[in-house]
Amino acid sequence: MKTEVKGRKLARHFELLDFDGDGFIEQADIRMFAQRICEAAGVEPSSRESQKVLKEGDKLWHALQDSLDHDGDQRVSRQEFIGLAESDSVMAQAIQLGMAAFDVIDIDGDGRISRDEWTTLDKRIGVPAADSREGFSRLDIDMDGFVTRAEFAKGVEEFYRSSDVAAPGNLAFGKF
C-alpha cells in the first residue's frame, strides 16, 4: 500500500525527471536525465559507460510506459508516476538505472563516490546544493567521506521501497 512518505518522495522524483516541465514524463525526459548523469561524469556520449546509462534509461522508460501509462498516450502523468510505489518492475528498473549512474559517476572506478562527484551529479539533474550535501551525508553511513557502492545501493533501494521517514535513502534525490 502506498504511504504518504512514498508519495512525497515520488512526487519529488517526478519533478526531477520531468525535464521540460510540462507535467508529464516522456521518453525524451528520461533520456535527458540519463544524458545529464553522463555529462556530470564527463564521459563521452559514445563511450561504453554512457551507452550503458542510456540503455538503462530506455529500459526504465519502457517499464514506466508498460506499467504506468494507463491511457496509452506515450507519457506518464504525475498521478500515474505515483503509482510507481506499487510497481515492482518499475522500481527494479529505476534501481538498475541508479546503479548504472553510480558506475559512471565513480570516475576513478574505486567503488565509491566522493562528495564532489556526488554534488556534481546532483547539480546536473536539478538537486539543490544544500539538499545534495545533506543527501550525501545521510548515505555515507560509515562517515568516511565517500558513498560506497553498497551504501548507494541500500540508499536507492530505500528511496524507492521504504516508507520509513528516517531512512537515509530518502534524501537520494534531495528533500521531498
How would you characterize the overall build of this protein?
This protein is mostly helical and 176 residues long. The protein has a single domain, classed as Recoverin, domain 1 (Orthogonal Bundle). The chain is 61% helix and 6% strand. A two-stranded antiparallel sheet has the order 1-2. It has a two-stranded antiparallel sheet with strand order 3-4. The model has no long low-confidence stretch (mean pLDDT 90).
Keywords:
single chain; 61% helix; 176 residues; Recoverin, domain 1; two-stranded antiparallel sheet
Summary, kept brief:
This protein has 176 residues and is mainly alpha-helical. The protein has 8 helices and 4 strands.
CATH class: Mainly Alpha
**Coarse shape:** globular
What order do the helices and strands follow? HEHHEHHEHHEH
CATH homolog superfamily: EF-hand
Radius of gyration: 15 Å
**Low-pLDDT windows of residues:** none
User: Order of strands across the biggest sheet?
Assistant: 1-2
Helix content class: 55-70%
Assigned CATH architecture: Orthogonal Bundle
The total number of structural domains is 1
Q: Determine the oligomeric state from the structure.
A: single chain
Give the number of helices: 8
Could you name the CATH topology? Recoverin, domain 1
Largest sheet: 2 strands, antiparallel
Q: Indicate the proportion of strand residues.
A: 5-15%
The average pLDDT is 90
**Tally of strands:** 4
Q: Which class of secondary structure composition applies to the elements?
A: mainly alpha
Write the layout of secondary structure elements.
Layout: H1 4-17, E1 24-25, H2 27-41, H3 48-68, E2 76-77, H4 78-82, H5 88-105, E3 112-114, H6 115-125, H7 129-139, E4 146-148, H8 149-161
Antiparallel strand pairs: 1-2, 3-4
